[in-house]
Structures are given as structure tokens and as C-alpha cells.
Amino acid sequence: MKLESIKKQKRLLLEVQILLAVVLILAIAMPLLLPAFRLKILGRILSLAIVALGIDLIWGYTGLLSLGHGIFFALGGYAFAMYLNLQLPQGQLPEFFSLYGVSELPWFWQPFYSFPFTMVAIILIPGIVAGLLGYLIFRNRIRGVYFSILTQAALLVFFNFFNGQQKLINGTNGLKTDTQAIFGVLASSASAQIAFYEFTILFVVLTYLLCRWLTSGRFGRLLVSIRDDEVRTRFSGYDPTGFKVLVFAISGAIAGISGALYTVQTGIITPKAMDVAFSIEMVIWVAVGGRATLVGAIIGTLLVRWAQTLLSERFPEVWLFFQGALFLIVVTVLPDGILGGLNQLRSLLGFRPRLVTYPSIEEAPEVQKEREEIG
């Protein structure tokens, strides 16, 4: 057991060293090597990697396939955009209010004058909404495909609601951020965008470490047991409802952070962020990289989104066919994603698969060790 513990510590140390090296390259080298518009694209992609980590937490580890994470992503984006739109001289209202005859700021806009409140709201509002939605679903023991359908139905409800609120949040047109200022600096300026890029890298690392911590101990093993056999987990004395609500709320809060960072690097937030196709695409990023790996969620997001950017530039008329082919290859040839395929390749070459986590109870090192001892 002591030898096994030393091996785990060495693997963790190696992982931290690799992570720090990647972070230094992204944070220091990329702003020097990439043009400003490419750096902005990379910042957007990295912000999307944050929401992919949250989806891997609930889908890869807990077995909850959410097709409605665009709700929480958009809530975080709107919270930050509302704060930026209120950075005006005393007594002035955001420009769009005058178009609809609104002369007094709506009550729910008032708290967003405060920067500390906005930072808390970006995390808490999506987390609370996710927790409430999860509680309403999980208390009735709804799971599997029915859970996925309900999250997508909730997404459509939020999309139609936000789309129709012209007087309150500018409806279809959304809220612009590129023409607003933050701490006296224009949000679309080069200096501000580099700062947002650096903050995005920081939050990718922090989110990864949070998810790694949640999934590496007893709590993580419990999530995997809920995913693989929820009934047995319930009969073991645990109530899966509370754990699923908690992890779903955490994933929603993570999506809110992702939405806020994506919004300020895109320049606008609209109800389009709650489009069904966009929420499904989030799941695809995780599937391409490899479920229940965390690292795979980041790799999948970078690969798919960067490929979309390059292919749409070079082959604007047929790039969607390339994207479809990529997804088909992953589903048919690499059902466990890129990292799962690498593990299979290691097995074929005679090496022991290097599992960042284990995608099923059967592959858990503890279970295999017990079998060897009993056998």
C-alpha cells in the first residue's frame, strides 16, 4: 500500500508539472506569438473548456447527460454583461431602454452596479438555478434519457423567455460588452482582452483542480457508483438525490463562469447562447476528448473549436462536412474519445493503460487488485 501511495504521489507531481508548463506556455508565449484576433479566438475556446470540464464532471463521472447547460452558460454571461452596461454616468440608462420607452431601471438590474455582487452572481445564480432544476428532477428519481429530455425542455423555456424580453434585457438583440468599459478601460481594447485571456487561463486551471479534487477521493468514487449502479448505491445507505443535486449545481456554477469569460471576449451575449445545438456541441467536446478524464474535456474543446475556426476559414462552403466526419470517426472508431483510444493503443503495445480516472467500476485499480488477491 505504501508503494502504491508513493506511485500516486509521483503521478500527481508529474501531472502538476505538466500543467504548470502548459499554463506558462499559454500565458506567456501565446500573447507574443499569436496575432490579437487569434489570441481572442484562443481565449474564447479556453473559456469554453471550462464549461466542458463541468459537463465531464456530471456526465463522465455521474452519468448525467445534460443537454441544457446553455442555460447556466448564458446566465453567467448576462450577469457580467449587465454590470458592464451599467458603467455609465450617474442617472443614465443603457441605450436600448430608450428604444422601448423604459425610463426607470428595472429592479433586478440595480444590484449589478456592484462589481463584488456581479462576481458572486456569476457563480451563484447559475448554481442556484441548476440546483433547483436538479432537485425538481432528481427527487422524482428521473434519470437517463428522461433527464436529458427535461434539461433540453428547460433550455427551450429559458430561450423563449429571454428572447421575448425586449424591454428588460433587449431580447433577441442581447447585451453588447465590446463598447462598454470596465475600471475605465474599454472592454474590447487590446489590454483588456489580454487581461481577460490571462484570467481565462487561471480559471481553466482552478476549475480543473476543483474537478480533480472532487473526483479523486471518496466523493468521486461515490459519483462513479451512482453512474454505474444507482440502485445499488441507494441500497448501500447513500441517498443519490443530494449528491446529484450538489454536483449538478457545481457544474452549473462552472458553466456560469465560462459564460461570463466567453461573453467579454466575444463582445455580446444573446439568447443564441441557449440554442439547443450549442448545448449539444458542449457534450460533443467531452465525447471527443474522452469522458471521465477531465483532461479530455479540455483537449476535445481545443481540437473541435480550433478545427471549426480553421476549416470555416479555408473551406467556408464545406467545412461542416469535415466537422461531421470528425464526429463520426470519434463515435465509430474512438467511442471512448481520444484519451480512451490512447489507452487502448498502450494495451495493444503491451503497456499498462494509463488511466487518469476509470470510466467504469470494472477498470478501477482497487477492484482489479482485490480480484488478483482473491484469485
From TrEMBL:
* CDD domains named in the record: TM_PBP1_LivM_like
Please give one Gene Ontology molecular function term for this protein. Answer: branched-chain amino acid transmembrane transporter activity
How does the record say this protein sits in the membrane? Multi-pass membrane protein
Q: Where is it found, in Gene Ontology cellular component terms? A: plasma membrane
Q: What is its main location?
A: membrane
Q: Which residues form the signal peptide?
A: none
**InterPro entries membership:** ABC_transp_permease, ABC_transptr_urea_perm_UrtC, LivM-like
Intracellular or extracellular location(s): Cell membrane
Transmembrane feature ranges: 12-35, 41-59, 66-86, 113-138, 145-162, 182-211, 242-262, 282-306, 318-339
Q: Which UniProt keywords apply?
A: Cell membrane, Membrane, Transmembrane, Transmembrane helix
Task: Report the PANTHER family cross-referenced here.
Answer: HIGH-AFFINITY BRANCHED-CHAIN AMINO ACID TRANSPORT SYSTEM PERMEASE, SLR1201 PROTEIN
Protein name listed in UniProt: Urea ABC transporter permease subunit UrtC
Give the originating organism. Hydrococcus rivularis NIES-593
